[in-house]
Amino acid sequence: MISYKKEDHFIKKVAFKTLGCKVNQYETEIILNLFQDEGFQIVNFNQKADVYIINTCTVTKEADRKSKQMIRKAIGQNKKSKIIVTGCFAQSNYQDLEKIRGINLITGNSDKNSILQQFKELDFHNTVVKVTPAKFLKKYDNVIKNKSILRARAWLKIQDGCNNFCTYCKVPYVRGPARSRLIDDILQEVSNLENSGIKEVVLLGINLGTYGEDLLPGKANLSKLISLINNFKGIKRIRLSSIELVNINNELLDTFGKCSKLCHHLHIPLQSGDDKILKLMNRPYNTSIFGKKIFQLKKKIPNIAITSDIMVGFPGEDNESFNNTYKFIRKMCFSKIHIFKYSNREKCLAILMPNEVDNEIKKERSKKLINLSSELFYNFRNKYLGLDVDVLVEDEIKDKEGRVYSRGITDNYIKVIIPDLIGKRGEIVKVQLNKIYSDYIISSV
């Protein structure tokens, strides 16, 4: 076996592909930073590279398919490259991956932070597959990120794992038990991000709202952490990623009033608007509880954007169940919804349930909800036309004629295009929202 040397001329470029959630994207950033610090050049995944790292997802069958597709794409782009596969699909389906010729290293979620070291131990002159045994950690595996690939916003992972075991969800089996990151480690990373010019941090977790439950009781929770981050002068915004309804308590609601930097945007998964289906899913609420909390949020934070996830075709979802879901979504007036089709997942109880829904029916129902989402998305943004809003400028884009525009987001996650390059990356500028265009609103100063 040959020891890896940083100066070896044949190892120069590394490319990454990330599938799935923002937690996966954050973890790819950690790996990317490790390789970058080692002297690697980061290139686009579509380019020829010496090393390809695919961070996979397994939340649905479609995610499995895309993961394998990206692996085969990497193998085809450079027959001499080293292929590393990690993430949730690697965690649960490594035996399937071992059958794909060309993969050199398969490693699960718990060993992502040591991928660089594992890579160094590979034999470069032989085609071998090294599989790191899947395991789960009892404590959060901390690596502090020094920089972000984003220029104005940065993802910040504070929690991993889930204890909920919804009957359709494979996540607890590939991510392990809920575990929280220590506050001091989080604040050190916030400080690093602040020093690098980041203006907005997005708090991430597999089950974000449970943050602190496994730490000292009363010493750490999501609300307390937000309050501490709020004290960083250079950080102008704090955004939460997906959070479960049951974790939105009165303390968190009060935090919106106390912490001016906390963005008025929450992604709260509903999954179904039918009580029978929610019970079969093992979701810890019914539509009455969910509805009351949403109305409470909107009353306390009038301009809040609430987005959600909806699953179609769960076993036992008949026409009545789907119609209940459709009506409930409209009643909640979400600003946008993400729709995905149910698919059987190994180890999940739903795979044993009767009354499986036909694929064509799933497609038809998905289309109806996609149309509803477009309507709700338009209605939400339409309320803000003519109003002045603060926009965090993230980057620049060009149209077909070569004209350059600034692009950014409001605190309630309305994407905005600003003509004439008003505002530099990382600045917060006040603009007037004038015209809805695709996923964006065109503004003027």
Would you write up a description of this structure?
With 445 residues, the chain is α/β, with parallel strands linked by helices. The protein has three domains: 13-131, Methylthiotransferase, N-terminal domain (Rossmann fold), CATH 3.40.50.12160; 153-382, Alpha-Beta Horseshoe (pyruvate-formate lyase- activating enzyme), CATH 3.80.30; 388-444, OB fold (Dihydrolipoamide Acetyltransferase, E2P). 32% of the residues lie in helices and 22% in strands. The strands form four sheets. Strands 2-1-3-4-5-6 form a six-stranded parallel sheet, with helices on both faces. It has a five-stranded mixed barrel with strand order 14-15-16-18-17. Strands 8-7-9-10 form a four-stranded mixed sheet. Helix 8 (222-229) packs parallel to helix 9. The longest helix is centred in the last third of the chain and has 24 residues, at 359-382.
